[in-house]
Amino acid sequence: MDIVRESKELLVKNRWLTNGSQYTTPSTEHYPYQWLWDSCFHAIILAQYDTDAARAELRSLLSRQFGDGMLPHIIYWIPGTLHNFRWGVEGTSSLTQPPMIAYAVWEIHRHDPNQAFLEEVYPRLLSYYRYLVERRDPHGEHLIGIINPDESGEDNSPRFDVPFNAPSDISYEAHHELRVQLVDENTASNFNVEFLSRHGGFWVKDVPFNAIVIENLRALAHIASLLKQEEGEQFANRSVELITAAMREKMFDSGEFRSTYGLDNKPLIASTWAKFAPLFAGLYSDDEARRLVQGELLNPDTFWAPYGMRTTSKEEPAYRAEGFHDKFSWRGPVWMAPHWFVYHGLQRYGFADEAAQIRQKSIDCLEKSGFRECFNPETGEGEGAHGFTWGALVLDMNPAEEQGSTFFVADIEDRELER
Ligand code: GLC
């Protein structure tokens, strides 16, 4: 299988142009819209070989920004095709998703420096991260909250079973119904986050989301610095410090970061891959990272499976290797985006061999089952959507590029000076 060629072909096959807006659907058959973090992944992949398409993807994503700065997690470009995606207001969803966009913008710039594009998107990026840091933290705790599991990108992860009051053997449909009801409740209160944090059915500070915010604020700081936007740079750097400290204070327990729920930040203890996400943002000490990687990630009884990293530990009662009939599941199956985050996290800490194994297991899944939405960790069988773009993230698991840190600031600045 020629993964590079097939990835590039899939990204073209899933590309749409609607009223001048170019975007890539995660799977044309199953998800015929534009999704927030999916589009950021597409831009990160395209940054390697087609930066014009990468920039077009992000321009479309930014074009439906809300007045308060929020970026919606879905844009329903073609009206009248809402299917069962009921969480919509006027052409978009009213939720957000893990904010990978500053990182994606920086990746494009790293491969193909273009200051005009940075200037074009910077005000919208700043306004999105300000929205997250200010509106999604109504009690000044320096942790960003989410109001629906879909905002984590891991829709039916058992990490959220406690706040959801969901049994560990909940079906796909029952879980979906709970989330849709939640959107209806959110809509009734007009998405007032302060109100929802007190009275809503779901108020979670999620570990991957906050780790992703931190790494993206670093990218925003680099962009602001290049553009000599001192205020934005200070905002981003200060927010990184505050969120990093708050995660340590309120989420760190027994050697790992744990998501919390409710006003009093009760820990969510279901064991999922979320504990590895802070590797991506460098939030563990070297010793903590080593213990976590050796004790948990590489442990076949918990996360390490023949076909990759289980998204839920095999020791959890909720663990199931399969999807739900023809549907996806975050209750065990391997997904390529978590693989990508962990790959980069491992590289960051110098676990090059382990990173290479994650990459190889990703390739094994694709070779066995093609570009599927997720994979049975024990057998590599594909689950959920077909023609799903996330497999192309393997193109950005590139050992030659890694140098122990995610950003290559010195590199970029030199190139900027040359231009
Ligand atoms: C599923 C995934 C979510 C993704 C979406 C579109 O809902 O759980 O993370 O963004 O599909 O691919």
Structure report:
There is one protein chain. The chain has about 425 residues and is an alpha+beta fold. About 45% of the residues lie in helices and about 10% in strands. The chain contains 15 helices and 16 strands. The strands form seven sheets. Strands 7-8-11-12 form a four-stranded antiparallel beta sheet. The chain has a two-stranded antiparallel sheet with strand order 1-2. The protein has a two-stranded antiparallel ribbon with strand order 3-4. Helix 3 (about 50-60) packs antiparallel against helix 4, helix 5 (about 115-135) packs across helix 9 (about 205-225) and helix 13 (about 335-350) runs antiparallel to helix 14 (about 350-370). The chain is globular and about 50 Å long. The chain starts with a helix and ends with a helix. Mean pLDDT is about 95; it is low at about 405-419. Bound molecules: alpha-D-glucopyranose.
